[in-house]
Amino acid sequence: MSRIQQCFDALRASGRKALIPYVTAGDPNPEMTLPLMHELVEAGVDVIELGIPFSDPMADGPVIQLAMERALAHNVSLRQVLDMVREFRTTNQTTPVVLMGYLNPMERMGYETFAKAAAAAGIDGVLTVDLPPEEAEEVAPLFREHGLDCIFLLAPTTTLARARKICEHASGYVYYVSLKGVTGSAALNVTEVADKLTQLRSVTDLPIGVGFGIRDGASAAAVAGVADGVVVGSVLVNQIAAHVGEPEQARAGITAVIREMRAAMDR
């Protein structure tokens, strides 16, 4: 059983929902990432989504685009990201880590080479923003063969027929984008999210995490009321942007947000 499945099974048994933070690896510098991952765990997260720096993050808004630029200014590569996770695993063998990013760096490394290296480093899943189901028939089975869950995005505009096709290739969990727009967008209608999740649960038994537009304890708790997991990114990355050159303050700001969300979700 994968770490991701173990995590969601344990949460379900305890009546709790997953808190899943996103941070960009190497932002604002490579030395920040490992201690931040450990502090996220201590603050109460369940799964970590670690962004792979990429020059053209088309699904992301300006907050995460700038995070990518800060990481790339330090030449943070995919192999360095794997090294960060390998180091994380020397002291944490339980928290699932999902790489989130775009196909290009993985394709350039070679899918099989990447899958072997990711599994060896202790990665549990891969969320590739620009991998449609039509191109997943080769990639998803290869990743699963090496013990990597293949996680896909579902959008408000995804038809039920297409969602069914996407979920045929998915494992671990699926990520529902709560609104039309890029990361960091503001509007969030929980009623609409709940209606869509009811439809999606007719085509998949996988846990459903919801992201985009979650900014504080109240919005996290509202989404946790209808979803299996809450994914939060831009509000955390904003803390780094506000404290570039001040790693302790940045980590303190991030953990304060996470603790607020965790407490609100567990009430």
What does this protein structure show overall?
The chain has 267 residues and is of the alpha/beta class. Helices cover 50% and strands 14% of the residues. The protein is built from 12 helices and 9 strands. It has helices at residues 3-14, 30-43, 62-72, 78-88, 103-109, 111-121, 136-145, 160-169, 190-200, 217-224, 234-242, 247-266; strands spanning 18-24, 48-51, 97-101, 125-128, 149-151, 153-154, 174-177, 208-211, 229-232. Strands 5-4-3-2-1-9-8-7-6 form a 9-stranded parallel sheet. Helix 8 (160-169) links the parallel strand 6 (153-154) and strand 7 (174-177). The longest helix is centred in the C-terminal third of the chain and has 20 residues, at 247-266. It starts with a helix and ends with a helix.
Write the layout of secondary structure elements.
Blueprint: H1 3-14, E1 18-24, H2 30-43, E2 48-51, H3 62-72, H4 78-88, E3 97-101, H5 103-109, H6 111-121, E4 125-128, H7 136-145, E5 149-151, E6 153-154, H8 160-169, E7 174-177, H9 190-200, E8 208-211, H10 217-224, E9 229-232, H11 234-242, H12 247-266
Helix pairs in contact: 2-4, 2-12, 3-11, 4-6, 5-6, 10-12, 11-12
